[in-house]
Amino acid sequence: MSRLFTRLFMVLVALVLAAPIVVVAGVSFNAQRTLTFPPVGFSLAWFGEVFTDAGWRGALLTSLAIAAGAAALAVAIAFPLAWFLWRWHAPWARVFQALGTAPFILPPVITALGFLSFWATAGFYGAPWTVVISHAIFLVTLPLVTITLGFSSVDRSLTEAAATMGADDRTVLRTVVLPLVTPYLVSGYAFAFVLSLNEYIIAYMVAGFTVETLPIKIFNALRYGYTPTMAAVTVFFVAAAALIFSLVARFGDLPRLLGAWSSKES
Amino acid sequence: MTAARPQRLQDYAPLVFPALMLTVFFVVPFGIMVAISFFRRVQGAFYEPDFVFDNYARFLSAFFGQVLGFSLVLATLVALVAVTIAFPFTFLLARLPRRWQVVWLVALLSIVSLSEVIVGFAWSTLFSRTAGVTNILVALGLMSEPMSLSPSFGALLTGLSYHAFPYTVLVLYPALARLDPTLMEAARTLGASPPRAFLTVVVPALRNTILATMIMVFVFALGSYLLPQLLGRPSNWTLSVLITDQAIYQSNLPFAAAMAVFLVLVSLALVGLSLLVGRKEAAQ
C-alpha cells in the first residue's frame, strides 16, 4: 500500500515536471502559425525557422559564443583559485572563495545592476564582450564548487609520492593532479555553459539594447504574440540541457557531484 | 598530510588572476552600485555624484511597502510549497537505485537551468485557452468551454513553485543522500509504519536542514523578475521587477541601486542565518 503510494507520488511529480515541456513540444509541431494543443497537422517548419531566419540564427550563435567564452573564463578563474586553496593552507584566501560564491546566491538582479553600474561608469556599456565577463563572474561558483570537490577527492599520498621522486609542483599538477580532476573541470564548464545559455537578466541589463541572446530574443518576441518558433527554441533549450547533463553523468559521478557519497563508499 | 603554508612569494602566483578578476569585476561593481545609491538623480540626464538619502527615503512610500510586502509573501509561499513537496520527494529519490537517481538528477538539472523566459512561456502556454489544461477538463466534461488561467496570482505561484522545485530538491539532496539509513531501520524495528517513521524520526532529525533550505528557496524566489511579468498581473510585480523597471525604463539608476542594496542586506542576512542554522546541525 505504502509502496504503491510512493510510486504514485513520484509519477505525479514526474507528470507535473514534464507537463509544460510536453505541451510546448506539442505546440511546436503545429502546421499553422497557431498555438494549439494537441497540435493540428504536423510540421517541422518552426524548427527550420530557428536556423533559416537570420534573427533567430543570429541570436542562437550569439548565445552559443557567449556561453562558450563565459564558461571558459569561469573555469580559468576557478581552477587556479581552487588549486591554491587545496595546495596551500591559507585561511585568509577563503575570502576569494566566498567572493566567488556570492554572485550566485544573491538574487541575480543585484549582480546585474552592479554590472550595469560598472560598465556604464567604465564607458563600455553595450559591448558584447562585457556580457562574457559578466556571465563568467556570475557563474564562477559552479566550476569553483565542482573543481574544489575534485581536488578534495585527490589522495594526497599520490602527490607526496610524486614529490618524493623529485617532481616539482608544476609537474605534479600536470601529470598527477590534472588527470584526476579533469572530469570535475569538464562538469564545471558544462554547468556554467548551460546556465549562461539560459541567463537573461544580466545579459539584458549589460547589453540588452545592442546584443540579442536567445532568451532576450524570446522575451522581446513574446510581446508581439506567441509563435510556434518560440516553442521550437524552447525544445532546443531543454534538449541541449538534457544532453549536456547526460554527458556529465555518463563521464562523471553525478550523484557525487551533487553531494551524495561516491558510489564506492555507499 | 595537511597542506603547508605558502612560503615563497611565487607560491601566491596562482591566486593573482582569480583575485584580480573577482575584485575588479565583482567587488568594484558592487561598490559602484552602493555609491550610486547615494547619488542624486538628474531629470533628463543620468545622475550626478552626491551624498543624499533621498533614494532610501522613497522606501517609505505606500507603493514601495506594498511591493515589498507582496514580494515577501510570494517568496514565503513558494518556499513553503516547494519544500513541502520536495522534502518527501528527495527522501524517496535518495533511496532509489543509483541508475534511477542519475536519470532524475539529469531531468531536475535540465529544468532548474531553464531560463525564466522559457518557464514563463511554457506555463503561459499551459494556462492558455487554446493549448491549456482547461481543454482536458472540457474533454472530461467537467467544464463547458476552455478558458485562459493566466495572468493571475495562481499562475504566478504555480510557475514559480515549478521553477523552485528542482532547485529545492538539489539543495536538499546532499543532506538526504547522506542520511544515516539506520535511523529509519531503528524506527521500523520499533514498529513504526514508514510514513510514521518518516514524520516522527526523519523530519525532526533534519529540521534545521529544512529551515535552511526554506531560506535558500525564499531568496531564490525573491530573485524572480520575469515570471511575475509573464504570468502575473502588474499588481503581482515583485521588488526585482521594480528594480529592473527603474534601472532600464525609468533611467533612475540611483533609486534602483538603493532598492538593490536593500535587497542585498535582506538576502545576506537570510543566507547568513541559513548557514548558521545549517552549521548548528552539522555540529550536533
UniProtKB/TrEMBL annotation, chain A:
Q: What are the UniProt keywords, alphabetically?
A: Cell inner membrane, Cell membrane, Membrane, Transmembrane, Transmembrane helix, Transport
| Predominant cellular place of this UniProt entry's protein | membrane
List localization entries.
Cell inner membrane; Cell membrane
Question: Any stretches that span the bilayer, and where are they?
Answer: 60-86, 98-120, 132-151, 172-195, 201-219, 231-252
Q: Would you tell me the protein name for this molecule? A: ABC-type spermidine/putrescine transport system, permease component II
Residues spanning the signal sequence: none
Highest rank taxon of the organism: Bacteria
Give the way it sits in the membrane: Multi-pass membrane protein
Origin organism lineage: Bacteria, Pseudomonadati, Pseudomonadota, Alphaproteobacteria, Hyphomicrobiales
CDD domains, per the entry: TM_PBP2
Q: One Pfam family, please name it.
A: BPD_transp_1
Q: Where is the ABC transmembrane type-1 domain?
A: 60-249
PROSITE patterns, per the entry = ABC_TM1 (PS50928)
Question: Would you identify the family this protein belongs to, as annotated?
Answer: Belongs to the binding-protein-dependent transport system permease family.
Automatic annotation (TrEMBL), chain B:
How this chain sits in the membrane, per its record, is: Multi-pass membrane protein
Q: List localization entries.
A: Cell membrane
Q: Which residues form the ABC transmembrane type-1 domain?
A: 68-274
Principal place of residence: membrane
Top-level division of the source organism's lineage: Bacteria
Residues passing through the membrane, by range: 12-39, 59-90, 102-123, 153-176, 197-227, 255-278
Q: Which UniProt keywords apply?
A: Cell membrane, Membrane, Transmembrane, Transmembrane helix, Transport
Keyword Ligase part of the UniProt annotation: no
**PROSITE patterns referenced in this protein's UniProt entry, alphabetically:** ABC_TM1
User: Has UniProt tagged this entry with the keyword Secreted?
Assistant: no
Report the family membership.
Belongs to the binding-protein-dependent transport system permease family. CysTW subfamily.
What this protein is called in its record is ABC-type spermidine/putrescine transport system, permease component I
